[in-house]
Specification:
Largest sheet of chain A: 7 strands, parallel
Shape of chain A: globular
Oligomer: homotetramer
Number of strands of chain A: 7
Distance between the termini of chain A: 51 Å
Strand order of the largest sheet of chain A: 3-2-1-4-5-6-7
Strand content of chain A: 15-25%
């Protein structure tokens, strides 16, 4: 395999993750795309990239199982090349649930996916990046990292933890040349296999038609990917740690 | 036992928790004091309160074991009386540790103590309070809930999760008459069995002598307890959700 | 005049300011009540306090005129006694206005009242308090200090400036024994001569009836005053810089 | 003059403003560069851009004088073309000054430059951009917009006002297609005519040598300009309102 820089995407579905993979592949990176299930969809994504002349590999990865992330990082470094950019794109949104309807298990699963998985990813890649004196870690985050809404007990706790973890990672690894960025996705993403699955096909289509004014009232993942790419290219004299993204027509989280 | 309102303190050591118990007992509450270990210290605390003419019970409670918090809440409601105020005072500070020195276990333990324990407490007491149309939950929190410093991977992630959880709890239960308050303890507390244990007796004594200008350069837990008591007495037309506390001589977390 | 500690209230109408004056007078302070107009209302407030056995003086004061605040502070110190607590309670809410409808003059007036007036007050009282090694300054603030909503160009800019000013004041004067507190009033106050005047009597009465569930869906100023008093009595080992207040039934500013 | 899109820069010195002008000119914009003084430096900047094959005009503009910004905007629209991007880059940092050393005049000047000037700019350009359904306003902001440090009374109040104003502008004009971005420059900029002037040539050179590890321990304005350009090119389905920028080696404002 050619010696391209590697962009590892954990959580590479048809939304932000997949589009970030496509964007980096276009820029000459080898995209390593990981997702929990849907081997076919993963294969299609890899083929899409290859069809454009890009380079990509796909792996199924269950991020809540011990050792999976760690092993994947080690295998990528050994078999493909040094990971220059790592995108942690696993969410933990389960829709609004009252406290009574939020089980211990659901609460813990939120943490495992959104907080602990990022911690494990960072523990695997940060030392490698620090040794090389460079690298970028971008965590896709959510409004729930900034404020806890009604029904968001599991999600908000998990994302609030993620945000503070990103700050601690940045405090330790920034001076070692590792760029850690926390991206607050503050709106609904036009992503069929997360939002679409949560809402169901009809409600999702309706939302697209209502809010997707000229197709841009929802966050378009391909456009989100442009900003991820920009972040990865920032010169180390002018790094961003936190940035928000929302459609022009959406109310920011702080307004109401 | 007389029909006093009950103040449950989870994490009742010699620092904020114990002093909050004493303060509420002085105001006519029955203090239910829970801590993980040191049965003798717990007994001394109960006796101190009784010696002042107050009313208190003490229980050992390992908050990371399943069912312990839930069972204690049920037993207190059955045997002592309705919990009017619940103080969640368990911290998860383990000192500064590099990412490499933060094990999966340490990271998970922070979450279990600081985030999940509060969630379980809330799930046990919130429905009872909501049914009664009143009640107060106060979470002792930390600077690490507001920003992640170097070496604070576990603590910051856990406290960041706690903060967002408090906001979600407030969003659901505030309108039902349950007052949820998040108290940011933004400084070192003059507490022998947490800070004292972490620093060791000599360093702790030195800190007291250096920073404890006229005994108030560290947060005095008895003074902190005054504000906890005030929060519990706020009229529901003017509730506080978030408040910070620090010594006059300390730099707030946002300055440097 | 007896040697009571003095509580100076700038902006003492029938809402928070007047009630804070009453609360401090009940606790043994001499309340110095200043407001721009309505000499009769001011006189009634002074008489109310005196009728309760308290001690108070009233002065008309146009805070946007140069020298007025400074002269009043000097006169109070000379004629009545040392100002121990200063409450800056002037708001600058002018209702929602589009940018086109916000004149240069309106924008500047917001700043003069909400930001510059506090700066001038601080410049007058901080040195006196720092010399005495103690004192409390409480600024009544608003949601608009935390986020800028649509139509709030003047108000949000003014209050955002006030908040940052409070932090700078605290950073300089906290270690000198002067307690600076920024109180975020995050909801509508049951105050006839500010909210009432803005809405008009009918809409105000309707709001009271709709939102004032059992008279506490609006912020009751007498209850707000309890927290102001508590802040002034906090021991310097455990000071609060920022605190929010809202009715139990209101959505906090960060939720929507 | 050719029909290039116009990028107006208010505050175009040798730091961020000038470099932003250069960056946009390289991308095909006509850069309109405004600064208060130093006609020669301004002319050099215009010539630099023209020498690269770019297009630029320069104007002296005293932003604190009434009508100056408004007239310049009108003249640019009439004589050069529609302003597509407006950069408000005037700062108000005057170094650390105690409250006693901060005169009324200094406090007011901070507001005039940092808050009121942006308001006036927005009032001039927002309606034009809203009519056209597109446009970008980027405000260069500072750490002092996020927290008030010791000695920053004037600067923090001014920048805190600027931040809230940006949020209100965004709330009104975002849905009309006008992108408002608030850029938090959280570190020292390698800018000879602001930081350099404030520190003096020797201290500035020393800072560059100490902090400018391989020339990137200070914010390099040409690199900052890359992010400004990216912001202006974001698709309206994924806009950023707030972003921070600092050198990799610098402590973010929230850490200490």
């Amino acid at each position: 395999m050619e010696q391209k820089p590697v962009c590892l995407v954990i959580g590479a579905g048809a939304g932000i993750g997949g589009n970030v993979g496509i964007r980096f592949a276009r820029a000459g990176y080898h995209a390593v795309l990981c997702r929990r299930s849907d081997a076919e969809g993963l294969e299609r994504l890899v083929e899409t990239i290859k069809g454009e002349g890009g380079s990509a590999s796909g792996f199924l990865l269950n991020a809540v199982k011990p050792g999976t992330i760690e092993d994947r990082v080690a295998a990528v470094e050994a078999d493909i090349g040094p990971i220059q950019v790592a995108i942690y794109n696993l969410g933990a949104q389960i829709g609004d649930r009252s406290l009574a309807d939020t089980s211990d298990k659901a609460f813990e699963m939120g943490w495992r996916l959104a907080t602990f998985g990022l911690f494990r990813t960072a523990r695997a890649v940060c030392p490698l990046m620090a040794d090389r004196g460079s690298g970028t870690i971008i965590a896709t985050s959510a409004t729930a990292a900034m404020r806890g809404n009604k029904g968001q007990h599991s999600h908000a706790a998990a994302m609030g933890g993620r945000r503070m973890l990103c700050q601690s990672l940045n405090a330790e690894f920034g001076p070692k040349g590792v760029h850690v960025a926390h991206v607050v996705i503050d709106g609904a993403v036009d992503a069929p296999d997360t939002l679409g699955r949560m809402l169901g096909p009809e409600a999702f289509q309706q939302l697209r038609e209502t809010r997707g004014m000229e197709h841009d009232g929802l966050l378009l993942p391909a456009e989100v990917a442009e900003t991820y790419y920009h972040l990865s290219q920032q010169h180390r004299s002018a790094w961003t740690h936190e940035i928000d993204l929302r459609p022009f027509s959406a109310l920011p989280w702080w307004n109401h």
